[in-house]
Amino acid sequence: MVTPKPHPRRRPLGLLAGLALVGLCTALLLPGRASFTVATPALVLVAPGLVAGLLGGRLAGVTTAAVAAVVLDLVFVEPYGTLGVHLVDDVVALVAFGAIALTVATLVAMAADGRRAAEQKAREVTALSRERERIRSEQDRLASENLALEQAEDARRALLRSVSHDLRTPLAAIRAITSDLRDGATYDDDTRRDLLDVVGDEAERLDRLVANLLSLSRIEAGALVPELQAVDLDELLSDRVRRLSRLLREVRVATRLPEHVPLVDADYVLVDQAVTNLLENATRHTPLGSTITIEAHERGDMIEVAVSDHGPGVPPHERDSIFEPFRTGSPSNGVWSSGIGLAICRAIVEAHGGSISAGDAPGGGARFAFTLPVHRSRPRVMS
Amino acid sequence: MKHDGGGLILIVDDERPITRALSAALSARAYRPEAVATGREALHAAATSDPAAVILDLGLPDIDGLDVLRRLREWSDVPVIVLTAEGAEDRMIQALDDGADDYVTKPFSTPELLARLRVALRHQRSRAEDAAGPGSMPVFTVGDVVVDMPHHTVHVDGRRLDLTPKEFAFLALLARHGGKVLTHRMILQSVWGPEYGTESEYLRVYASQLRKKLAEDPARPRLITEPGVGYRLIDRDTPTM
Questions:
Q1: Which ipTM did the prediction report?
Q2: Which residues between 18 and 77 in chain A have a beta carbon less than 8 angstroms from any beta carbon of chain B?
Q3: Which residues share a beta bridge with A314?
Q4: Which of B106, B112, B117, B240 should we substitute to test contact with A (largest number of A Cβ atoms within 10 Å)?
Q5: Sign of the dihedral through C-alpha B137, B211, B99, B17
Q6: Do B110 and A183 touch (CB under 8 A)?
Q7: How far apart, in whole angstroms, are the C-alpha atoms of residue A180 and residue B25?
Q8: Which of A175, A340, B129, B216 has its CA 20 to 30 A from that of B179?
């Protein structure tokens, strides 16, 4: 409970106002005091106590009422100028006045105090709930900030784990072979060539990984801005397949493009990297000797490019998360493989205003499809 | 040991560059390599091909490498060398506790892996000879160290060692598993009791006493410390690196 007390400065103010009003009423009524009965000033002089009670609280009201009673007796009850009373009527009037003035002042003061207390309480409740609201939103903000930090930390850890795994695997093969050769192992020509191929392939793999890491740092810095030019997809795809011939030598690659594929608006280097990642991903999952299919279709003002393999495919619940950085198709038994390739594909495609998705390949396997805008000879008019 | 090769070595790793490198290295030394990429294929091949040793990567796409090892150990004592990624020491120690003979961390040097493979094969043979020896006496021989369990004696190069009971138990355990890496936990629980497991500082003290009594040549040690992992007793004629 809040005690209903007027503000300390309002108490003298109320008293002062009450006393001033007593003076004013007296001054106004004094000239005609002979022409009316004591009832008139008695009624009028109730008002100062009421006002003082209202403004200054109970003490101010009661004091003013008492002063008003004395003034009434002194000024308006004969004999004037003394506290004496001649008439019984006047005695009754004075007593009644005193009782009424005191009661009115008290009641008014109590009502005013009550109202003030209620108002103050209402203000306090409002302030409290506002404060609670503020604290709650602050808590929410901190919680989401914390979550974001934790996620960033998890992502960083996952990146480190994934990158160190991806770097270490080719390095392990290279180190195994070079340490063996240094040890003086003697090989026939075929084996020797085969081992050198492994070293060469693994060095290329490291090269692709480093390219992806560079792109990742550009994406994180928000600096992945495609330099658009008219790109011939036919040329890009066949060139990329040719350059990856070593990686792709144990699978078949079928490229199925329509007669005339329209040019696309794209950054050649970035799209080339996305295609490389998708082909490397397909190679990793498709069985040896199976066919990886590359297709392109016109879809309205976009071209869709799709890479399909005959591997285990991507389960429906992973088809979105697989594009998040450092997620992998199968992080089984602590094995982390290339967690950034697909995330980079998505960043590249979306920077071009296209989209990328994972689905089922006809006949089983995964099908990754992305879209790029068809090149317009003239800039399109934006509506 | 007469020659390097001869046996069939099962390589279990889903990274093709690694299996290609290992297959080539093993073939060049007259072993017969067989490479598989999954745990399922590994268990099948271990049952059907009767390998002389298994090189098992712990990170496999289908079954956890540790499960492959445990299932293999239910019916086979074929020497198993596990391959683990650097930073996965806990899994490697678990593999040793679960019966792996030795371990190599990736990236590894092929000569080192081959040396460990030779140790594992040789000790497997000598364990088999101990078991098939005259009257199958419980005597364990690791190079020039002979541990006679019934008589509670240890001879090194014909010289009898004077050992405390704990020293004898420690050395006998290592000799019984000649060539095999025994983890701190395995040694502590076997020699000191099941309530022990983390007091690896005891082992350091006993190992150093044993080295003195064995009159170890630091250049060709028999009692090998595997830092942070455990100990093993090897036939010191085996090159380790």
A1: 0.74
A2: none
A3: none
A4: B106
A5: negative
A6: yes
A7: 7
A8: A175
Last residue of a domain, one of B56, B90, B122: B122
Kindly report the nearest CA distance between residue B233 and chain A, in angstroms: 25
Read off the CATH number of the domain in which B46 is found.
3.40.50.2300
Helix (H) or strand (E) holding A142: helix A88-182
Radius of gyration of chain A (CA): 47
Question: Would the pLDDT of A332 be above 70?
Answer: no
Contact B123, B142 (CB under 8 A): yes
pLDDT at A335: 36
**Domain limits for position B52:** 8-122
Task: Tell me the one-letter amino acid at B89.
Answer: E
- Average pLDDT in chain B: 86
Q: Are residues B111 and B26 in the same domain?
A: yes
pLDDT of residue A133 exceeding 70, the answer is yes
Residue B149, min C-alpha distance to chain A (Å): 40
pLDDT band for position A6 (cuts 50, 70, 90): low
Same domain, B37 and B107: yes
Of B122, B153, B176, the position where a domain reaches its end is B122
What CATH number matches the domain at A229-373, 2.20.28.160, 3.30.565.10, 3.50.50.60, 3.30.1490.20?
Answer: 3.30.565.10
pLDDT in tens, A299-311: 889 999 999 999 8
Amino acid at B177: H
| Nearest-CA distance A179 → chain B (Å) | 5
Mutation target vs B (from A247, A335, A337; most B CBs, 10 A cutoff): A335
Fold classification of A159-220 (topology level): Helix Hairpins (1.10.287)
Phi/psi of residue B133, nearest 5 degrees: -65, 180
Q: Does B95 share its domain with B164?
A: no
> Tokens 């392939």 sit at which residue?
A201
Residues of chain B above pLDDT 90, percent? 39
**CB within 8 Å: A198 and B108:** no
Average per-residue pLDDT for chain A: 84
